[in-house]
């Protein structure tokens, strides 16, 4: 074995972990997006059935969640790229 073998193994491990993180983040963002859609539907139903204030709060919370989801993806991508290099 050469002297750089441990570095190669560590690099390979980091690449595997980065790939796993990217896959996990993708699934979590998909699940979070589905939850946001469900929450908007629930808020709309609440609003229509006479619970206007509760419906507004639910929809606003879902929209805030959407902003968090949208902003989290680039941040996580940058962190993964920094860890993999």
Q: What does the model show?
A:
The structure is a single chain. The chain has 85 residues and is mainly alpha-helical. 91% of the residues lie in helices and 0% in strands. It contains two helices and no strands. The chain has helices at 5-48, 52-84. The longest helix has 44 residues, at 5-48. The protein is rod-shaped, with a radius of gyration of 20 Å. The model has no long low-confidence stretch (mean pLDDT 86).
Low-confidence stretches: none
How can the largest sheet be summarized? none
Content of β-strand: under 5%
Q: What's the SSE pattern? A: HH
Sequence-ordered SSE layout with sheet pairings:
Elements: H1 5-48, H2 52-84
Helix pairs in contact: 1-2
Short description, anyone?
The chain is an all-alpha fold. The chain contains 2 helices and no strands.
């Amino acid at each position: 074995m050469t002297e750089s073998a441990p570095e190669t193994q560590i690099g390979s491990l980091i690449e595997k972990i980065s790939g796993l993180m990217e896959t996990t983040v993708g699934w979590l963002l998909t699940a979070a997006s589905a939850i946001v859609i469900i929450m908007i539907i629930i808020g709309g139903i609440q609003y229509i059935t006479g619970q206007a204030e509760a419906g507004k709060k639910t929809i606003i919370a879902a929209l805030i969640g959407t902003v968090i989801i949208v902003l989290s993806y680039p941040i996580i991508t940058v962190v993964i790229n920094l860890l993999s290099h």
